[in-house]
Fold:
Amino acid sequence: MAAEVGADRVLSYGEHDDGEAADADDAVYVATPTGRHLGAVETAAELGKDVVVEKPIEKSVERARRLREVCAEAGATLMVAYRLRAEPAFLRARELVKGAQSVR
Structure:
């Protein structure tokens, strides 16, 4: 994936958690499985990074609240992203659904 998008570097979860390359990053985009968001956000906030989390924000309301608290306590900006809308398969499915609705 890194080669495909031309990424300069890729960090493992462990390298990220250890703060490797933290000085080079302004923010962290969390697109891990939903149940792993909180841990990644905690690390990013501790490193003083703003955070973008892929939707859904977490797997439970309690974990989502904790995620928000962690960022607030660290003074980190928290944003939720929803990239699926731009995926070709999603766009095609949407076209098909709209087409089916107009037939009715």
Observations:
- The chain has one domain: 2-103.
- DSSP finds five helices and three strands in the chain.
- The CA atoms of residues 38 and 67 lie 6 Å apart.
- Residues 88-103 form the longest helix (16 residues).
